[in-house]
Each structure stands twice: as structure tokens, then as C-alpha cells.
Amino acid sequence: FYIVQNGSVLTSKPTELLVNCYGMFCLGGVKGVTTLFQIKLIFILCCGMGDFRPRTVWLGHPEKREQRYPRNVINNQKYNFFTFLPGVLFNQFKYFFNLYFLLLACSQFVKELRLGALYTYWVPLGLVLIITIMREAVEEIRCYLRDKEVNSQIYSKLSTRGTVKVKSSGIQVGDLIIVEKVSLSLPGSCFLRTDQLDGETDWKLRLPVACTQRLPTAAVSHSEDGDPPVNESLSIENTLWASTVVASGTVVGVVIYTGKELRSVMNTSNPRHKVGLFDLEVNCLTKILFGALVVVSLVMVALQHFAGRWYLQIFRFLLLFSHIVPISLRVNLDMGKMVFSWMIKKDSKIPGTVVRASTIPEQLGRISYLLTDKTGTLTQNEMVFRRLHLGTVAYGMDSMDEVQSHVFSAYTQVNSQPTHDAPASRAPAATKVRKSIISRVHEAVKAIALVHNVTPVYESNGVTDQAEAEQHYEDTCRVYQASSPDEVSLVQWTESVGLTLVGRDQSSMQLRTPTGQILNFTILQIFPFTYESKRMGIIVRDESTGEITFYMKGADVVMAGIVQYNDWLEEECGNMAREGLRVLVVSKKSLTEEQYQDFEARYVQAKLSVHDRSLKVATVIESLEMEMELLCLTGVEDQLQTDVRPTLEILRNAGIKVWMLTGDKLETATCTAKNAHLITRNQDIHIFRPVTTRGEAHLELNAFRRKHDCALVISGDSLEVCLKYYEYEFMELACQCPAVVCCRCTPTQKAQIVRLLQERTGKLTCAVGDGGNDVSMIQEADCGVGVEGKEGKQASLAADFSVTQFKHLGRLLMVHGRNSYKRSAALSQFVIHRSLCISTMQAVFSSVFYFASVPLYQGFLIIGYSTIYTMFPVFSLVLDKDVKSEVAMLYPELYKDLLKGRPLSFKTFLIWVLISIYQGSIIMYGALLLFESEFVHIVAISFTSLILTELLMVALTIQTWHWLMIVGELLSLACYVASLVFLHEFIDVYFIATVSFLWKVTVITLVSCLPLYILKYLRRRFSPPNYSKLTS
Questions:
Q1: Was 195 annotated as part of a binding site?
Q2: Which residues are listed as membrane-spanning (predicted)?
Q3: Measured between alpha carbons, how far is 640 from 375 in angstroms, rounded to an integer?
Q4: What sign does the dihedral 411-417-418-424 (CA atoms) show?
Q5: Whole-angstrom Cα distance, residue 534 to residue 553?
């Protein structure tokens, strides 16, 4: 049984089950269970929000629980059925922009304030709300369906009726869940894959609770009240975690935690409603426009000398000039975002990309900091053996056939001798003789094949069953299990050169030579790798010769003091590290029987010590670690994802600083950073020393301050100390670094770093990850990008944007992010210009007619102006682009210009305001000067000139024509001409057919637009923008 901390199990393949829980305690592998008796377990566990209290769990009887526990459901929705409408409306009207229009529409119910038909105010507002509600509803339904799919997965539960099927949402604390993967594993153990959780593809060994292994196999035994209680301490090795996969073995687990009490859920913050910086800027501009609206209204009343009921006049002028704040702005921007999202999804060069948050695509165009996970995001977590170095000779990927030849030669020579080991290693005197290259290669390969914690496991391949495959060491059925992918790659390499690990258990190991001979080794002692020791060792006895050998491998920094003196180790380790390889130093020491017996006695004695046990054990082991014979160096590469290096270079050239936040160890993170060229070859690296106190942190920060243009590598523990005492100073220094690597980071720390960057710099951040431990960081960032791959979908489901490969990030930001931001900026400013034009004309009209609060245009004219007459050409600006996507990718420096926010700034806003005032004044004064006799002629001339001016201004703004833009222009013009027949109430149809009308409209339109065309030509001629130099 394994104790399961949740239970809901997801099937990712027919042969593997994924436990969607924090973990379950492993009670053991039991098959054929038909009866279930009552067993009461009392766990002293961390419950809920971290308070420690006893939890009594009745196995298989959840109804007997003494307290209520959360339901085992996943819920990623922002609203439920009852809160949807109130929640959406609240999120809309909490912004000044929409609240203003609601109050405006409501004011038309007051008779004294009404200016026209109610529909002129309520129809635009209703349209805005309907589009918003529909968009939110679609996203919520999609989210609900994704959650429902997960919560409805069917799993096997052990009950009094035998094995029954249960939905994931129906699993409760105390349920016994059966999780199995059809493969062979060691008795009383199973292997776990955590790639869904942290991106790590290596397998973790899990052990059952020892007392449950003594239960009968036919049924779960029971304990009567009179039976003595069994007390047993539980550790991390007895748990199966949330979102992990049982890779081998059959597990029966008791559910301990469900739903909100899972560690993975508590590590994840609630999804927040992200509001883009662009939306906040637009909101700020609308407040300025509202201020202008109030000022203009007050000026109009002041010029009337506040006569009569002047306060009512103020409200009427506020309504009259309400178009200064354009209601269509929000609709246009929201529809534009939907178009940008659709373009991202349909881009064939980034297939599989999904937009989950369609409200923030323009955020992608202004990213200053990119925070990325390492394992599974930058790397594939697939290790490849690249280099074997023997000091005088090195073997790369292209010369492995030589190694294979030497190994084969060593064993064919050995077979004619009484022992199977190379002659050079038999007698101590022989070590003084220069060894042959065959002997040296053979010893190095044998050492690599023995010093590890890898277990070969045999699976059925459809032709051979498990038992037969294990008996005959079938190559096609064998897979290697280990807690480190590095070790698997080393063992796979020794297999490729002829020395194969074919069997292993707790006390022995079997190797197969190129000639087919099986070598048996007894494992006497294993000293596992730890973060502190940075090395692992093994003592083995060769069964055929009785020789005892101590093999050790480890990091060069610790092995340099253990091996015999040599003049090449440090230099070659440095060379291989610069290539981004993970370097291990392999050594050996031959022991006599007496030496080993003496060591064993001291080692056992040290392990029995009550005080300073770990120190005494380490001291005994270190007595062996002296003057060891250096055999070789191995170089293993963690394969990068496709095109990671060019993508990171593009991001760097675009002015984006990249930080790598990983839970991996420091050496591995540094190697990957170099290999991916996150840290360039000529760049200095400052490795932040481990600090635990305020004084140490202060000294180390001072040392770091003296370095310039230096990449920073810091561990999570040191980071926590620095942020506790010197948060401002540390962030200031870190933000100046070209690259930062944070290793041993917890999910909470990753989110904290993102939050601090946002607060300290005010810049936009983008977080990229692929595992469940990246969800907090992704949700905290302004833009969260999930990489969807073999490590699962947890990160991609929680992200705003989901990509299939890291390299797609370059195009997502450089092309789609840049275009979305520039197009949104152009669209918003043009909509503001369109509204300011008609408001300026209204102001001029009212001024001329003695400041009367009388509308210039009424009814359908005012609605048609913002919809069918100008909507299509104005909205077609979402298709505009200044450069081709290939140019944007080739010159990422173009992206750097956007980081300053120039496309939408107070400067550009002021320019458009001045243009609007100029054109509105020209059109209105022109119409007043040239009108003939009737008021309807003013309306006809001015409105027609206004429509033509808007169409010409769209043409002036467009940089690259698209056929839909031309269609939009012609369609709008056709709609206006066709509608004149029905607008006889506002426009004299006979007058517009005269030559007088045509030449007057032409003159006014030319005067309003021609100067702007001339200015644009002069600017392009004498001060062209950056992109125009690339397109010419």
C-alpha cells in the first residue's frame, strides 16, 4: 500500500496512470483483494493551512471520518453560474470608462436632460456589454469543459464490494485507490515519474509502509480493538505526490489529502483577472478626455454668463459633447484582440499555439523581463554522452567506434587468460608500467558501468513476456530506471560500446561483455550522491576473481583533492565545462580483504553512533577517499530544446533580459546557462556564496557590487536571506545583470521574484514554464506562457498563451506581440480622433449659434457615423503592419523601440488631438461659410465632408495595404451613398445631387486632409522611422 494524498488519477496512456494528488501513502502492492476490514490509521500530518493536528483515517470507510474534507475537484473557473453575470458586469463597470457611459445612458430617462432618442445611447452600450459577456462566456465554458474532463476520469477503488469504478471527483479521504503500470519492478517498491509536476523525467523510488507488507495477500487484514497499535514513522519515500505517474509496479494507496489541501494546489495562487498595461493607459487617456469634456461644458455655460437654470445646461452640454469620450473604443479594442488571438492560433510557423487569455495579446509587444524554467523548457531533460577523456586522449561522438573496438579487444584478450580483468590492473607493481590504451579504456568503461544507482527493468514487448525477457536479458525489453537522467545516459553509453548492465538488485549487479559473458559483482557498500558531498561511491567484489574495488565519481571541485596528483584534470574540466557539458571525474581504488574488513567494522560502528552520526560516517568514508587512481572524465550534455540558442539571442537583441529560475542544483543550472548561451562565453559569472545571516549577505552583496557586466548565479536559500534583509539593494543589482540564474528555487520563490521585478522596475514580465511547479510564476507574471510537451499540460492550461516549443516564443513576441501592440495603439488613437472630430464640430456649431445646447446631428446620423459609415475601414487597421514578419524576426532591435511605449504616448495622443481639432474646425467653418440657405445644407455638406475625411485619414494611416482594407473603404462609401435615400429627414437629397454640393465638399475635404498628406511625405523624406529603412 502507498499512502495517497489525493487520489484522483488521470490516465495519460492505457498503460500508465497519473495520480492527480499531492501524494498517497504507499501501503503496498496487493492483488486479488476481495474483502475489506476496518483499519484505523492516525496520522500526525500537516492539514489545511499548515497547522499540525492528528488526522484519523479509516481505510476504505470514508463515511466514518470525524471531520469534513474538501471535495476532490479541480476548478480553474473565475465565475460560477450565479456569479457570472454580476462578476462580468462588475469587472466592466469598475473601470471609469464603462461606468461613465452607463450613467450617460441612464441620464436620458430624465426628461430635462434628454437630447434625442433613447436608442442613440443605449444601443452602443448594449452592444459593448453583449460582446464582452459573450467573450467571457466562451472562455468560461471552455474552462468548465476542461475541468469536467479531468474531474470525470474513472479510477479503480477498493471497497467492501471489491474493486469498483469511481470518478475522480468522487474520491474521498480514506479511499483505497489502485494505481498500476504493467511492468516488472523490485518487490515491495515502485517507481514514480514526476515530469507532470516539475518537468523532471527521471524516476523516483518509492517504498511502502513496512507494517503493511506483512498483511496477507488475499485480503487487507484487520485490527481488533484489543490488538496493540503499530507505530511507524512515515517519510517522503512513502508518498505518491499530486500530478505524478506510477512508472512501474502496482500500488494500493490510501487517500490522505484531497482538493484544496493538496500541496500542489496550496503552492498555486488563484488565477487573477489580468488587465493589460495598454488597457490601463487607454483608461488614463479617457480620463483626460473626460476632463476636457467637463472643461468645454463649463466654458460654454460660462460664455452664457450662467444664465437661467445653468446647472441643467452643464448636464446638457456634458451629454452633447459626450462623444469626446468614444464608447466604440472598448468594442473596437476587444474585437481587435480577438482578431490578434485568431492570427496567433492560425500562424502555421508556430503550430499548436493556443491563446487562453484573449484580453492581453498586446502585452507580448512590451516584455522587458523573461523568466524561464530550465528542465523541459530550455532543455529536453534527455542526457547524451558526449566526451570520454583519459588525459592523453579524448573520445568524442565521432570516435566512439574506437572505444567499442578497445573494449572488445580487452575482453577477447582476457578470455585467453585465467582472469577476466586487464593485466595492468592485477599487480600493484604493474601500475608503474605505462598502461596500454586498450587497458585504460577498458578500466574507464568498466568503472562507469559499475558506479551508479541504475536498475534495468524488463517489460513485455508483445512478443516476449516479462519473465522470459528478464531471464534471458532481452535487449529489446529492457529499460533503465534511475533517480538521475545523467546516470541513465552513462549506462546507456557503456551498453553502446559493448559493456551492458543486464541485472541488478539490492546486493548484486550483472554486466554482459561484448563476447556475451556475464560478469557478476557483489555490491558491498553504496555511498549515495548528496548535494553536500557532490560525489557517489560503490564498493564491489568481482565474483570470478574475488577482487574488491572502490569506485567513485563526482564533481571536479571535490574529486581534485581525492585523486592522485596529475597536471591535466583542472584544465580539461574547464574546457569541457565551457562547452556546456556536465563533467564527472571517475576514479578507483583496489582494496585487499583486510583493508575492506577494517573499513566495514569502522563504518558499522559509525552508523550506530547516537551523537554526530553523519559526521562520523563521513569521516570513515573519507579515510578510503585518498590517493585514488584517476581513470577518466565524462562529459554529458542535457540536450537543449530545438533552436533555444538563436531564440535567446533574438530575445537579448530585442532588449529583453532573461532570468532562469530552476529547482535544479547550481552546477547543472550553470552548465545549462552556458550551453544555451544565456551566459555568453566572454561573460564573467558571479556565483553568490551561500549566506545564512544578515552580515554574510551584506559582505557578499558588497563583493557583487564591485563587479560590472557580470551574470549572477544564486541559490534559493541565499536568495531568501538577501530578500529578507536587503530586498531593494539585491533587486537593484540583479536588474543590472545581463543574465540571472536562480537555482534550488521553490514554486513560491519563483512567483515572488516575478512580483518583485514588477514592483521594483515597473516593467512587464513574461514567465515561461512547462511543469506544475511553474504555475505560480506563470499566473503571477504579466504574460504567462506554458510549454506543452511530454511533461504534461498543467503549465499550459494555467498560462495565458500555450506553445509547443520554446523556439516559438521568438515569433510570438517579435511578430505577433509587436504587431498587436502597434495595431492596438493605431486603432485606439484613430477611434479617439474620430470622436474628437465630431465633438469639435459640435463645439463650433454651438459657439456660432449663441452657445445653444442643440445637437448638430441627430438619430441615425450619430449612430451610423461610428458604425456602418466608418467602422470597417477603421477596424481594418488591425491588419496593418509596418514590416514583414521575416524582417521583424531578422531585426529584433525593432522590438526594443516598443519598450519605451512610443506607439501610444502622451505625445502621440496630443498630436491626434490637434489633428482632430484642426479637421473638425475646418469642416464646420467651411460648411458654415459655403452653405446656401437652409440648415439641412450645413448638415449635408459637413457630414459628407466628415465621412470622406475619415476615409482619407484611414488611407493616410495605413502603411501596408491589404485587400480587405480596400473593400472596407469602398463598402463604407457605398453604405453612405446608399443610405442617403433614407436620410431625407436630415439631408436634402436634391441638394446633394448638384454640382455646387460636390465642389464644396471636395474643397473642404482637401483643405482638411491635404496638409496632413504633405506633412507625412516630408517626415518620411527627411526623418524616416527605423522600419522604413528596412522596407525600402
A1: no
A2: 81-103, 115-134, 280-304, 310-333, 831-851, 857-879, 909-929, 935-956, 963-983, 989-1015
A3: 9
A4: negative
A5: 9
Q: Give the H or E element holding residue 828.
A: helix 818-848
Residue 427 is predicted with a pLDDT of 37
Query: d(Cα 496, Cα 515) in Å, to the nearest integer?
Result: 14
170 is in an annotated binding site: no
How many other CB atoms are there within 10 angstroms of residue 534's CB atom? 15
- DSSP-derived pairing of the beta strands 629-640 and 379-389: antiparallel
- Grid look-up 469498483 returns 164
770 has binding-site annotation:
yes
Q: Which helix (H) or strand (E) holds 504?
A: strand 500-504
Q: Is 744 annotated as belonging to a binding site?
A: yes
Q: How far apart are CA 586 and CA 746, in angstroms?
A: 32
User: Residue 725 carries which DSSP code?
Assistant: H
pLDDT, position 26: 58
Rounded-to-integer distance, Cα 293 and Cα 323, Å = 9
User: What is the structure's pLDDT at 452?
Assistant: 93
Task: Check whether 645 is labelled as a binding-site residue.
Answer: no
The residue with cell 577498458 is: 442
Question: What is the average per-residue pLDDT within 838-849?
Answer: 89
Q: What is the CA radius of gyration of the chain?
A: 37
Cα distances (Å, whole numbers) of residue 15 to 176, 245, 468, 474 = 20, 11, 20, 21
**Cβ within 8 Å of residue 350, ≥6 positions away:** 344, 803, 808, 811, 812
Q: Is residue 227 marked as binding? A: no
CA distance 668 to 646: 21
Distances (CA, A) of 413 to 428, 514, 542: 20, 12, 18
Q: What are phi and psi of 997, to 5 degrees?
A: -65, -45
Q: How far apart are CA 1000 and CA 814, in angstroms?
A: 47
Element (H, E) at 106: helix 96-107
Q: What is the pLDDT of residues 147-201, one digit of tens each?
A: 888 888 888 888 877 888 988 888 888 888 888 765 555 566 777 877 666 656 6
The number of beta carbons lying within 10 Å of the beta carbon of residue 554 is 22
DSSP 8-state secondary structure symbol assigned to residue 62: G
Sign of the torsion angle spanned by Cα atoms 263, 264, 267, 272: negative
pTM exceeding the 0.70 threshold for the entire prediction: yes
Q: What is the mean pLDDT of the chain?
A: 82
- What span, in angstroms and rounded, lies between the C-alpha atoms of 775 and 242? 14
Contact 26, 3 (CB under 8 A): yes
pLDDT recorded at residue 251: 84
Structure confidence by residue, pLDDT tens digits, 309-367: 788 888 888 888 888 888 788 788 888 998 999 999 999 999 989 998 888 899 999 99
Chain centroid to Cα 842, Å, comes to 51
**How does strand 176-181 pair with strand 154-159?**
antiparallel
C-beta separation of 837 from 949 below 8 A:
yes
Those residues with Cβ within 8 angstroms of residue 749's Cβ, 6 or more apart along the chain or in another chain? 661, 716, 719, 720, 742
Q: Which residue has the cell 515502485?
A: 190
- Pick from 956, 957, 948: nearest CA to 865: 948
Q: How far apart are CA 829 and CA 73, in angstroms?
A: 45
In contact, 156 and 177? CB cutoff 8 Å: yes
Q: Using an 8 Å Cβ cutoff, are 385 and 572 in contact?
A: no
pLDDT of 8: 33
Which residues, including other chains, have CB under 8 Å from residue 918's CB and lie 6 or more apart?
A: 1008
Please tell me the chain's helix, strand, coil percentages from 3-state DSSP, rounded to the nearest 5. 50, 20, 30
| Other beta carbons less than 10 A from residue 872's beta carbon | 20
| Sheet strands (E) in 48-161 | 51-58, 154-159
CB-based burial label for 624 (10 Å; 0-12, 13-18, 19+): buried
**Residue numbers annotated as active site:** 373
* C-alpha span between 403 and 386 (Å, rounded): 13
H or E element at residue 733:
helix 727-736
Residue 594 sits at φ, ψ, to 5 deg, of: -65, -45
